[in-house]
Task: inverse folding
């Protein structure tokens, strides 16, 4: 993940505050820290007052979010759909379960996705199987072989299903893995009666299998065939050769040469998203910023439900001081993924650069609310609070950084500077 480090400049700001309207016509301004009875309000002067509920007409919440404790549990994340993955070379598209990420493909897999939780790892793979057998016959052979390959196999269910609009067969079960751990699987084989079949399967911790089945079934429902590129055999070979050479050159550190190879791919297949992703990353890396912005813009259009290209676009725009455009990109990323912590941090960075410090603080605090142990959010918050002469808040935020990461030199320097200034 990439984080922006804002350069901060001092500016006096108005204060966002809650307004507690009393039944006698009066108004108390501050931050409501307890809405029970009595209502507890932290005043702008730093004091605390309590007002009985029956004396209050209404409360207008305008204050910035309260700073979370670094030991607080993260808030419950909003569940959003994962972006749909499209493979035009192999002719399919599929949406993995919510929150799953594409990772390096497993052996024989056309695409591999992972559930990002180290405690309960799960993977999703898509294979293509070419066979003249019927769906029923191929499924029966495959299921029998799979069940016989593992120790203590226990069948969960087996049934007919749909892989998108394709007829399919599904079977699931549990078994003992190579390391003696309890594993679960869910396999779906679908396709026409003969020819080419798609195998979409999930493997991971047996304890999570039942809970994931609805997500697996939604992924199957999202599957669709997409038109393969209209290329001749020679053009397809040229594309594959250039793509392979581009990848090799990246591994060899020959980034400029790699760009030339991926340019060949883009000319042959202008809508191949992975090619534009490689070009965006490489051109940004070698300093061709204008080209990188163009490539990330193209990628965002090719992956309209994926927040990552928009986030990366915003990062490049920030680096060339195009702050309004960067802000727009980060906000679009949040439209797709509201709990995208890094996007909230970078919105705070943009707001800091444009001296909109209250909005910057709100963004950093939102990131902290989502992930209370997010060091970059706490550190940036501390810096902005320091600039605003909110020395206690700055000190608290620097200390929160050190509670999470005791060797953070920036936070140590921040506390040292506050002490030197007499705070």
Result:
């Amino acid at each position: 993940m990439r984080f922006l480090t804002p350069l901060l400049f001092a500016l006096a700001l108005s204060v966002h505050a809650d307004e507690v309207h009393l039944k006698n016509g009066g108004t108390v301004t501050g931050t409501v820290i307890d809405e029970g009875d009595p209502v507890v309000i932290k005043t702008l002067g730093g004091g605390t007052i309590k007002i009985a509920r029956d004396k209050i007409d209404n409360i207008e919440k305008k204050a910035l979010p309260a700073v979370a404790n670094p030991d607080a549990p993260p808030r419950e994340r909003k569940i959003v759909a994962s972006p749909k993955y499209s493979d035009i070379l192999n002719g399919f598209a599929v949406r993995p379960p919510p929150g799953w990420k594409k990772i390096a493909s497993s052996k024989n897999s056309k695409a591999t996705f992972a559930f990002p939780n180290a405690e309960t790892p799960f993977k999703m793979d898509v294979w293509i199987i070419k066979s003249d057998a019927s769906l029923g016959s191929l499924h029966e052979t495959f299921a029998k072989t799979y069940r016989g390959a593992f120790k203590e196999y226990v069948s969960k269910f087996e049934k007919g299903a749909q892989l998108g609009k394709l007829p399919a067969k599904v079977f699931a079960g549990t078994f003992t893995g190579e390391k003696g751990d309890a594993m679960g699987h869910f396999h779906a084989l679908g396709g026409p009666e003969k020819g080419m079949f798609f195998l979409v399967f999930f493997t991971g911790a047996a304890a999570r299998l039942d809970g994931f089945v609805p997500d697996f079934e939604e992924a199957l429902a999202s599957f669709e065939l997409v038109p393969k590129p209209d290329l001749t055999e020679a053009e397809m070979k040229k594309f594959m050769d250039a793509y392979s050479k581009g990848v090799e050159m990246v591994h060899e550190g020959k980034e400029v040469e790699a760009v030339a190879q991926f340019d060949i791919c883009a000319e042959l297949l202008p809508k191949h998203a992975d090619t534009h992703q490689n070009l965006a990353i490489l051109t940004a890396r070698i300093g061709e910023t204008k080209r990188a912005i163009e490539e990330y813009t193209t990628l965002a259009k090719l992956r309209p439900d994926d927040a990552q290209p928009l986030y990366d676009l915003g990062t490049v725009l920030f680096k060339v001081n195009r702050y309004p455009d960067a802000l727009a990109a980060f906000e679009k990323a949040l439209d797709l993924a509201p709990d995208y912590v890094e996007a909230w941090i970078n919105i705070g960075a943009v707001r800091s650069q444009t001296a909109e410090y209250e909005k910057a603080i709100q963004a950093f605090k939102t990131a902290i609310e989502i992930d209370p142990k997010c060091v970059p959010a706490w550190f940036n918050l501390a810096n902005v609070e320091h600039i605003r002469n909110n020395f206690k808040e700055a000190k608290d935020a620097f200390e929160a950084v050190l509670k999470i990461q005791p060797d953070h030199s920036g936070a140590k320097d921040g506390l040292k500077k506050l002490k030197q200034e007499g705070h």
